[in-house]
Amino acid sequence: MKTNKVSKDLSDEALVKKIILKNDADLFEILYDRYADLVYNKCSGFAKDEDEAKDLTQDVFLKLFIKLVSFKEKSKFSTWLYAFTYNHCVNYVTRDTAKKIEKNAVETTEIQDSPVEEDYDIYQLKVDKLRIALERIPPKDKMILLLKYQDYVTIKELENIFDIGESAVKMRLKRAKEKLIEVYSNL
């Protein structure tokens, strides 16, 4: 049992390496215990009810055990897991698991001035209407907005998560915010 105690004290990244090396479900349980509530909370934002959120959470962890080897430490494990969870939920909602996040490069000239000025509109929205508006925009737009504004994922981390450049991340955020504000305004 000393091994389990030692494993519980490992960082996420070290624990992932150990899980991959040994393909150990017991060690994976430690990772599950650390993140089950967080993953459930993310899934509940996409699910219709509690049971569906629980099912999505279990699906994420089943898929995660298989895909854990694809974690390349380009970002913190928790950031990678959030993106993994969002991608799973987006695929679930859109019913199109073969669809990948588009990898279109965007010209820097298409990006408007300071994102800080644009963010002011997001922060002014009322929470109740915001939840409704978030449900009405495409799941991939909801995903990037929640990663940025709920989970405080940086632009650099978003670049790594989506495997796209800074300008493409900024453009996706800009477009997603515009859609959200438009839907919100029409409520």
Descriptors for this entry?
10 helices; Rna Polymerase Sigma Factor, Chain: A; 187 residues; 2 domains; Arc Repressor Mutant, subunit A; mainly alpha
**Which second-level CATH architecture of the largest domain applies?**
Orthogonal Bundle
Molecular shape = globular
From the helix content, strand content and strand pairing, which structural class follows?
mainly alpha
Radius of gyration (CA) equals 18 Å
Question: Number of domains in the coordinates?
Answer: 2
> How large is the share of residues in beta strands?
under 5%
Gap from first CA to last CA: 56 Å
**The CATH H-level homologous superfamily of the largest domain:** RNA polymerase sigma factor, region 2, helix turn helix motif
Q: What portion of residues is helical? A: over 70%
Top CATH class of the largest domain? Mainly Alpha
Strand tally, please? 0
pLDDT average, as an integer? 79
CATH topology of the largest domain: Rna Polymerase Sigma Factor, Chain: A
Number of helices: 10
Profile the largest sheet: none
- Residue stretches low in confidence (pLDDT < 50, at least 5 long) are 96-114
> What letter string, H or E per element, gives the SSE order?
HHHHHHHHHH
